[in-house]
Amino acid sequence: MAEIVTLAEAVTELVSDGDQVALEGFTHLIPVAAGHEIIRQGRRDLTLVRMTPDIVYDQLIGAGCARKLVFSWGGNPGVGSLHRFRDAVQNAWPAPLELEEHSHAGMANRYVAGASGLPFAVMRGYTGTDLPSVTTTIKPITCPFTGERLTAVPAINPDVTVIHAQRADRAGNVQMWGLVGVQKEAVLAAGRSIVTVEEVTDELSPVAGQVVLPSWAVTAVAEVAGGAHPSYAQGYSDRDNTYYQEWDAISRDRATFEKWLTEAVLT
Amino acid sequence: MTGTSVETSGHAAHTASEMMSVAAARALRDGTSCFVGIGLPSTAANLARRGHAPNLTLIYESGALGARPDSLPLSIGDGILAETADAVVGVPEVFNYWLQPGRIDVGFLSAAQLDRFGNINTTVIGGDYANPGVRLPGAGGAPEIAASCREVFIVVKQSRRSFVDKVDFVTSVGHGSGAGDRARLGLPGAGPTMVITDLGVFRPDPGTAELVLEQVHPGVTVQQVREATGWELAVASEVGTTTAPTAGELTALRALTGGPDGKEG
């Protein structure tokens, strides 16, 4: 059963140096506050996993938390590139960043395999691209029934998955709705999980399109209202598009970024 | 960013970027489904839906199927997409159930680099993969969109930096190394059938699969297009001129983007 704890307690207990950590969220419901707590607690050598590493991953990378990134699209959605990510790849600042690069379809299938307890997933994808030549976790496979040549990608099973959801009840059952991305698969694929929520309520009244993660599938729940900002939680907040646009200037320069990090996260 | 303003008799003045978005929007047929990339493709697809193609089904990789945003989303996951969609599904479902089986008519993509066969690079430019000159965001949904949609439209600002002889990395396959390559690779869709830039419109030659300049936008010369192309450009025997944006198209586009200098990717 999920324990209801503070975010600081959850990160202290469940995220360790060297872990493979997935903070998932596909534009919506991104666990930004949890990412900042990982930075504050000074975690190092993390393998960060995410389909769409956006600005919270830019922040984790710039803060020196990451050793490796497993991903399919690393950008500032609708704005442009991630400058801390780019600086790490191009200039090894503040540390070298190893990449394991996929497509969205590949990453989604890797989570599905992880959640399903399978060693790999089968898909049509990557054929003719240069990705298999730079990513060792993309392999051809022949269908044993039709002989068709397909692509296999290995399961992702993070040590810990972190997501943000709209609500949990006091027993730790989690409810989310709107664009739910790959969060259910990422939680079920992981050894441990942390869910930050907008609010903990007595009851979870049904919402159209909801996904419910039962308490026994989650390790820890922490109430963090606004914990997805500048991403959003449908029904609670809107995406702060201005923040995403402003991040471009903040992140472009190392000194400006470090000033931001000190003022916005570390103090 | 917006290029030179063009005045055409009977039509309102417009920028080259606006011409590109309008030409791209016109390419989308009503009643079809379109897998929409963010930026220029999203601008064009939303313009089409407000104009000649009200029954265009917009599919965003974030899980919004049949989205009807009333303003242009900044990202592929803005709340307005889920709130207005026919159905909202998880990301594995978008790719496995909807894209992979070939249910979607048009994949609408952009590119950092594009070659004569419509192969797309959005991964790295210069250097090598491990030590790139410029690290770009990467693949996202594009490799499988390019593989599995029935056809692909590409909208991209054209210059010698984007129209290159050889892409530095094949992120998404167009026509590979030429005609027949998609069939050899087992890629189910037809691949790029149209490329729309701020200078003109290109289609692959049926025999060679190489992009051919078929239309220039008003005020653009074939020579200008050649100069903005990093290979020996194939030009149709008769090059048409794109119809300039109508006042109605421009009004609708500016309502979406916030004006001629508004956001557009």
Automatic annotation (TrEMBL), chain A:
The keyword Transferase applies. Keywords: Transferase. GO terms for molecular function: CoA-transferase activity. SUPFAM superfamilies: NagB/RpiA/CoA transferase-like. InterPro entries: CoA_trans_fam_I (IPR004165), NagB/RpiA_transferase-like (IPR037171). Belongs to the 3-oxoacid CoA-transferase subunit B family. This is Glutaconate CoA-transferase subunit A. The lineage of its organism: Bacteria, Bacillati, Actinomycetota, Actinomycetes, Pseudonocardiales.
From TrEMBL, chain B:
Keywords: Transferase. GO terms for molecular function: CoA-transferase activity. Coiled coil: none annotated. InterPro entries: CoA_trans_fam_I, NagB/RpiA_transferase-like. Belongs to the 3-oxoacid CoA-transferase subunit B family. This is Glutaconate CoA-transferase subunit B.
